[in-house]
Amino acid sequence: MKSTTKQSKSFTIFDWIKAVIDTKPSWETFNPEQQKQFNNYMIHRFLSMNPKYIEVVNYVQGLNIQDSKKLYEVYCFM
Hints:
This protein has 78 residues and is an all-alpha fold. It has 5 helices and no strands. 56% of the residues lie in helices and 0% in strands.
């Protein structure tokens, strides 16, 4: 039997990296479950693997942003 409830797509780290670097949708477009899956540490780590972003990631980490929404917006601005 098929469920009639529509399930939202869970986001992987790769979906978040694509959102930050490429598509840059507004934070509000993600549902609360997806927003909870945003992991600040993993975003810093994966972005820092790209030589183009090392200095930016180093600077942003120094700002010590704890709020996921704010960190997402900072990275989307780059």
